[in-house]
Amino acid sequence: LNDENTNLINLWNSNGKKNFNDVLPNVENFENLPDFGNLLLGYLKNSTNENITLLTNTDSLINFSLNLINQPNNQFEKLPLSIQLSSISYDFNSNSYISNFNDVIEISKNLKLPLLISSNDFEYQIFSIISIVLSKSNINNIHLFNGFETNITKSINNLLNSNEINKFQNNLLNDLKSSILNINPLNIISFTLEKVNSILGTSFKNFQFFGNSNASIVNILYPNNEKINSIINENKSDEAFIIVKSPVPFDSSLFNSLINSNIKQINVIDNSLLKLDIKASLFFNGLFSINIIEQSLNDFITKYTANVTNSVKKYKFLFNDNS
User: Fold this and answer.
1) Do the bridges between strand 217-221 and strand 265-269 make them parallel or antiparallel, or are there none, so unpaired?
2) Closest to 105 measured CA to CA, from 5, 287, 244, 260
3) Cα angle vertex 245, ends 242, 249, to 5°?
4) What secondary structure letter does DSSP report for 312?
């Protein structure tokens, strides 16, 4: 969609730069209008490209998603669409942490699209490729990344170079094409992440457990900013954390495997829809005694800030008005 985020892509494209597949991408800019869903569907149907990547933000997706949802017979589901969704997790006007994950999860569920969430530049690179490979395998999906965090990359040393990207993409595509059609839709993301781990030697999971394995209190949240990563990495309490990398589809069996008999309370940070999925998952597993509480993101960060020794990094921003 046409906004400031696409300027670099347009610049890259106008200079004749090819991507890691040695292809010059075709870049189209669209205005953020409610009927954009119809325009997108028409573009997808008439395109000869093997993959369409839509770079947009949460507000734009909310604006046109109803248009997609109302398409008869879910026409867009059979088209090669990868939605790269940028989410900013800090409101500079109110100086507070914000979250729109509820909106994203609701849209993802309504569109029946798997959802992946990345938290840093390396994950952003890998999950973007996963998203594109899935779309080439006829599995449309949404990759949600933090548009603020991924634009302040500290180092490129941990990122894949173009040759490594190409090799990884081809290996993953070959692995998935031969087997993914036989996989239960509920297990598509976990199956894909297992393939990724075998190729790259990583340890990605739908739900990642951190902290005290015998904890009675577990905090469940999304990896949406650097502050949360600092809290988890430097936590000195007896509590544990589960980071959610893929809430849609919600893989109950994987989630329940992380819940042991010591856990008495689960704090779900800033997400009522995730709380409902967790309650249903525990209920069907016969776990009725665990207390499930929803907590705001700001309250969570305030509570744990005292346990984090690193000071918050300060950044200088240059906007179009030179502020």
Assistant:
1) parallel
2) 244
3) 110
4) P
81-87/240-244 β-pairing = unpaired
* Maximum mean pLDDT: which of 25-29, 156-160, 244-248, 293-297: 244-248
Give the largest CA-CA distance in the chain. Answer: 61
pLDDT tens, residue by residue, 249-267 = 999 999 999 999 999 999 9
How far apart CA 251 and CA 248 sit, in angstroms, is 8
Give the pLDDT band of residue 313 (cuts 50, 70, 90).
Answer: very low
CB atoms within 10 A of CB 177: 13
How many CB atoms are located within 10 Å of the residue 51 CB? 17
Helices and strands: H and E segment counts in the chain = 11, 11
What's the rounded Cα separation, in Å, for the pair 202 and 18? 28
With 60 as the cut, is the pLDDT of residue 2 above it?
A: no
Count the Cβ atoms, other than its own, within 10 Å of residue 3: 15
Tabulate helix, strand, coil % of the chain (nearest 5): 45, 15, 40
Q: Are 83 and 51 in contact (CB under 8 A)?
A: no
Per-residue tokens: 304? 């744990």
Candidates 203, 211, 234, 227; CA nearest to 308 is: 234
Instruction: Please give the Cα distance from 277 to 250 (Å, whole number).
Output: 7
Measured CA to CA, the distance from residue 84 to residue 202 in angstroms comes to: 22
Retrieve residue 146's tokens.
């933090």
Exposure string for 273-309, b = 16+ CB within 10 A, e = fewer:
bbbebbbebbeeeeeeeeeeeebebeebbeebeeebe
Q: pTM for the whole thing?
A: 0.85
Residue 245 has a CB neighbour count (10 Å cut-off) of: 21
The residue behind tokens 């990398």 is 245
Can you tell me whether residue 217 is helix, strand or coil?
A: strand
The pLDDT value recorded for residue 21 is 72
Number of other CB atoms surrounding residue 244 within 10 Å: 25
